[in-house]
Amino acid sequence: MNWRIEENESFEFATELMDEAITKEDVDPDQLTIHADNGASMAPQSVGEVLATLGVRKSHLRPHTSNDNPYSQAQFKTLKYRGDFPERFETIEEAREFFAKFLLETLD
User: Fold this and answer.
1) Is 81 helix (H, G, I), strand (E, B) or coil?
2) Whether the predicted model's global pTM rises above the 0.90 cut
3) Do 3 and 23 share a domain, yes or no?
4) Could you tell me the superkingdom of the organism this chain comes from (predicted)?
5) Do 36 and 60 touch, CB atoms closer than 8 A?
6) Are residues 58 and 93 in the same domain?
7) 60/85 same-domain check
8) Do residues 25 and 3 lie in contact, with contact meaning Cβ atoms separated by under 8 Å?
9) Could you tell me which residues come within 8 angstroms of residue 52 by beta carbon, excluding any fewer than 6 positions away?
10) 93 and 61 in a common domain
């Protein structure tokens, strides 16, 4: 697993994230498929372009169908319904700390 939280999306951040994940997990990029919603971050000029450059396939949700990736959806719901999930993160560091703790707990 690899993740990061940044103040904005960029080709550079996405490339670093995917390169780190591929190296860390020791997999060939052509073995990977990234499943995403149909949001703007997967547009051709951003993360979608990074994935294509690295040879990683991408798949998308069907329009108006939020349950195409039930594992991911369940994790988001678990996260949002936690009693300690803040209404707002005051700093990016606070968000990073919260998610690091959450992800470590879910992997145990």
Assistant:
1) coil
2) no
3) yes
4) Bacteria
5) yes
6) no
7) no
8) no
9) none
10) no
Q: Nearest 5°: phi and psi at 16?
A: -60, -45
How far apart are alpha carbons 91 and 101 in whole angstroms?
A: 16
pLDDT > 70 fraction of the chain, expressed in percent and rounded = 69
What are the tens digits of pLDDT across the range 58-89? 665 555 555 556 666 677 788 888 888 898 99
For residue 52, give the nearest of 30, 80, 28 by alpha carbon: 30
User: How many domains, the chain?
Assistant: 2
C-beta contacts of 88-94 below 8 A and 24+ residues apart: 92/5, 92/6, 92/7
Q: pLDDT digits over 23-62, tens only?
A: 888 888 777 766 555 555 545 456 667 777 777 776 655 5
Tokens of 84: 């300690």
Residue with tokens 């990073």: 96
